[in-house]
Structure formats: C-alpha cells, structure tokens
Amino acid sequence: MKIALNAVVSIDYTVKDNDGTVLDTSQGQEPLTYIHGHRQIVAGLESALEGRGKGESFQAEVPPELGYGQRDDERVMKVPRKELPKEMKPAVGMQIFAESPDGHTVPLWITEVSAADVTLDGNHPLSGMKLFFSVSVKDVRTATKEELEHGHVHGAGGHHHH
Ligand code: ZN
Questions:
Q1: Ligand 1 centroid, distance to 128 Cα (angstroms)
Q2: What is the C-alpha to C-alpha distance for residues 35 and 40, in angstroms, rounded to an integer?
Q3: Which of 44, 54, 93, 151 is close enough to 62 for a disulfide, judged by CB 3.0 to 4.6 Å?
C-alpha cells in the first residue's frame, strides 16, 4: 500500500542542516513509527512521504515554515534562578514545560545558565533552520481502529501499554 491518511508508517531517517551536520537520526535505534496525516511529524516531511511505498528511499528539503517554524526572539526570556522550582538543576539543552496563561502546556528549552539567571527559549532548537532529510520507508500498513482512537501506534516502534 501507499502512504496515505491513517497509514502506520515506519521510516529510517537522518536529518542534516545546511552544513551537512547531522541533527538527528534513527540510525542505531528502532525506525520512527507514526500515524500518517495527523501532524505527528513535521509538515514538510509528512507531505514528502505522501504516496510513497515500502522500500522507497528519498531526500526531502524542508524549509522552516514546514519544519519547526521561524525563530521568534520574543519567545526568549531571562528568569531569575530563584523563580525556578528549588529541586530543578538547570542545564543548557534541558527541556522544561510551562503553563501558558490560557492553560496550554508550552515546551521551553534552557539555552543559557548563569549564577543569577536562566535563559528560556520557547523556540524549538531546530526552528529557523532548513532541514535536509534522507528517508527510507521500512513499512506501511493500515492503522487499527484502536490505534486511531488512541492517536498513537501500538506494537513495534510504538506504545507497549496494552
Ligand atoms: Zn494505546
């Protein structure tokens, strides 16, 4: 079958930046498995996968607006260390979750730590970047009713909570 809405897709991938530096890869791990058409992966990669079949390999260039978004400097803030939970040991690269005024959970990344302050960045670390994916499709199958209800994949490469 071809990749279409509600297909369960397993891919091996490597993503590089403009300079060829590897940003992320599934090499040495299980393939990435997701349900197609639900924005579980970045939009540009999802549309490049549409209509492909098992065994296909391809390259895809994904601009920031179809990847992790453009950077927005207004989403960077410096907070005094004492405003963070006492038990937290802030470190650069750490991801934390804050609650927005309207009750949504927003991910923030720590980008700088000094004696007095911590810099929190609401931009994804890969935002503002053009991404170069190398992908190989390992498997395509139909999602089960249960998987669609749960919104995630069960079994190999997915959740094992049943
Ligand atoms: Zn489940």
A1: 33
A2: 7
A3: 44
Between CA 154 and CA 145 the distance in angstroms is: 11
Report the SS3 class of residue 147. helix
For residue 45 the two structure tokens come to: 């990669």
Residues 6-54 have pLDDT tens digits of 999 999 999 999 999 999 999 999 999 999 999 999 999 999 999 999 9
Q: Give pLDDT tens digits for 133-159.
A: 999 999 999 999 999 999 999 987 777
Long-range contacts (CB closer than 8 Å, 24 or more residues apart) made by 105-112: 111/76, 112/78
Structure tokens at 155: 């079994």
CA 35–ligand 1 middle distance (angstroms): 12
pTM of the model: 0.82
Distance 4 CA to ligand 1 centre (A): 21
CB atoms within 10 A of CB 7: 20
